[in-house]
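User: What would this chain look like folded?
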Amino acid sequence: MKRINRERIATLFLMLGTFFNPLGYDALLKWMIDVTGGYWNGIFIFYLLSASCFILYFILSKAKIFKKNNNILK
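Assistant: Here's the prediction, encoded as structure tokens.
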């Protein structure tokens, strides 16, 4: 049962990471630009949120993203 909850949380963070990627969510991005006072500040916040969610997804799902690369090198 613990594994199911961890997978659901990992999937939630994957979806949040995709959501905070500012390609297409212009209304929320516009609000963030107004709040932070600049375009690059708003973009930075969105990419920071997106990267954080993707990192949490990989940690929670225990994805082995480098395992296939090791097989290629051998």
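The mean pLDDT is 76. If you want, I can go into more detail on any region.
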